[in-house]
Amino acid sequence: MLVSLRLEGGAAAINDAGSERMRSYRIAYLLQQQVDNPSVQLLGDIRHEMALFEMTLKELAHGNPQRPLYLPKDQYVNGQMIHLIHFWQADIKTHIERVLNTSDAANQQAELKRFRPMLEQYVAGINDLVIMVENNNAHAAALLRYIQIALVILAMIGTVSLLYLFSHMVVRPIWQLRHGISRMAVADFDVRVPVTSEDEFGELAVGFNRMADELRDIYATLEQRVEEKSRSIEAKNRELAALDKAMAISEERNLFAQELHDSIAQSLAFLNIQIQMLQEDLQKDRIAEALKGLAQIREGVQESYDDVRELLLHFRTRIDSTDLQTAISSALEKFQGQTGINASFDIHGNAPDLLPEQVLQIMHIVQESLSNVRKHAKASQIKIVLNCGDRCVIDIYDNGVGFDVTVDAGDNHVGLRIMRERAQKIGAELIFESDKGRGTHISLKLSENCG
Predict the structure, then answer these.
(1) Residue 92, number of CB atoms within 10 A of its CB
(2) Residue environment code for 327-342, b if the CB has 16+ CB neighbours within 10 A, otherwise e
(3) Where along the chain do its domains lie?
(4) Which pTM does this prediction carry?
(5) Angle between helices 356-372 and 414-425 (to 10 degrees)
(6) To 5 degrees, how large is the angle CA 162–CA 167–CA 170?
(7) CA 363/CA 324 separation, integer angstroms
(8) Which CATH number does the domain 2-156 belong to among 1.20.120.1730, 3.40.50.720, 3.40.50.300, 3.90.1200.10?
(9) 3-class SS shares of the chain: helix, strand, coil, % to 5
(10) Do 175 and 194 form a contact (C-beta atoms < 8 A)?
(11) What are the pLDDT digits (tens) for 166-175?
């Protein structure tokens, strides 16, 4: 920084010395103009230039730290500067005053003629000063380069030293800790890290070794604890499986009981009423009415028989395969053979692979829909469509009499409520669409991640 400051101050000194050469020639030029055509303006300009010249000389001699401006601390430079100041005071300035104070034009020309070689000598002295400063700056620049080279070498040595120290004091302890952690990750609890220092890394190594000792002790009894916990978990799992099975059986029995109540119990109640009416008709010898009632009783018994067979089929249903397409086709074939109602089945896309429990619940919903068509819809055609895209949807259409969804599809209808409960079990959405006289559409939308 000091050498750079010296270079900057020397450059400013060279610049001011150069301005002194220019100002010397300007003073000579103004003197010539004053001698040829005297004027107060020219005289003022000469005085002003002389004042600037003296001020610059003083600044060169004493320096200016604000710019900064410094002459090199060299005896030859200082000697030359003292010579220039003395030359100015004793000769140049005195001769200029003599020219200005002489009133005779011829004498002024003579003095001006003697001034010119004196000025040339002075300017040469200024040039010598500039050369001395430039030479000194050249030495300073060379010194600055040597210092820079030395700093680069010192930085390289320092970098290599820091890398070595960093590797020895930081990288190696961290690598040892990392190696110990890697071995511990594969259950090698006999690993130990060497303690090579008393700093933070040494404390980490001591803590790691202590942790390894504790883990080895814990691991020694861990297998026994795991075995005990495993036996306990297996027992709990068996209990849980038994409870789940019992709960599933209970739910199925509950659904079966509700279906019995919805179908068989109501049919038996109807038959009981018909038998009472038949008994009354026989007692009153109303044979025609009795025969008519007997026919109704026969129809009711047949319907109850069909309901029982259907419920037993539902109750015994076991899905050994997750082939939903085959299960629906088989159910439709049996339905068409038993009822004579025309049934068709279409599939779009690939049927999903479902769990047996999911297929079971779907088939219960399909069979309940077929049962409702048989008992209530008075339909001549039923169609099931399986659409398998991003979401699997099962649509069931019939051309029967339909019903009022807002009234008959509520929770009071046991069969429809059971269908909804089965759909909720597998996370599906069940939608009923129907109008009286326009058939019924049932849509079962499976969840996107079904199966």
Answers:
(1) 21
(2) bbbebbeebeeeeebe
(3) 2-156, 318-451
(4) 0.39
(5) 160
(6) 100
(7) 8
(8) 1.20.120.1730
(9) 75, 10, 20
(10) no
(11) 887 778 888 8
